[in-house]
Design brief:
The chain is about 60% helix and about 0% strand. It is mostly helical. The longest helix has 19 residues, at about 20-40. It starts with 5 loop residues before the first helix and ends in a 21-residue tail after the last helix.
Length: about 100
């Protein structure tokens, strides 16, 4: 699609955004899960699938790496602070990348 080798694309991506493509996608999926955990009462298994994780165990492993706690504990701790959650807006200085 962009006519670059995988290695060259990964280096250019990391130079542009500061993180590798795999880490960027994982971070976006964790942010999606956090948003859904606060905005809905869906079970974590459904949230995991909606955000692109294979299953709830995969969500838990990746979430713990990024947030330092399990999704269940994070949800319970942040539920008290719950306020209306707006959808994240793209920053004006950087276009959002869409991954399928």
């Amino acid at each position: 699609m962009v006519r670059l080798s995988a290695g060259h694309f990964c280096r250019a991506f990391k130079r542009s955004l500061g993180v590798a493509p795999v880490a960027y996608i994982a971070g976006r999926r964790v942010a999606c899960a956090q948003h859904l955990m606060l905005a809905t009462d869906e079970p974590l298994s459904q949230i995991a699938l909606a955000c692109g994780f294979y299953d709830q165990a995969h969500l838990t492993r990746v979430f713990r790496r990024y947030a330092g706690t399990s999704p269940h504990d994070w949800r319970r701790r942040h539920r008290d602070d719950r306020a209306p959650v707006a959808a994240p807006r793209p920053r004006a200085d950087r276009q959002e990348l869409a991954f399928a």
